[in-house]
Design goal:
The protein has 142 residues and is mainly β. The chain has one helix and nine strands, in the order βββαββββββ.
Length: 142
Amino acid sequence: MAQAQLGNTVKVNYTGKLDDGTIFDSSVNRDPLQFSLGEGNVIAGFEEAVVGMSPGESKTVTIPSNQAYGPYQNELVIVVDQQQMPPELSVEVGQQLQIRQTEGQVVPVIVTEIADSKVTLDANHPLAGQDLTFDIELVEVQ
């Protein structure tokens, strides 16, 4: 039976959990996740865990934040005057927005706080700074 190697396209079932056991993502009740090993389409630690697995094999791995979405960076949190927001936009905590940097790059942000006519925007990935545990089952190697 073929083991998954760099360059292979694989299909996996997975469940991702935080340290407290909260499930943040899962392929349960969905089609398996398909990706090519070595192309960087999934986080590095997840990809490394799949390499060497055989179809039908399952494992649980914990991926440290530096191999997942990186550390939480306080410098990616900005506070702006609510007057700087487009007037037609009704801003709410938890809302996902996109801001354009002066170089033209578009950055996704989440509104984390609204207070005293100030809006706090966080450009960190929602899972930044967290170690992630995945239950992985290799379904197929193509």
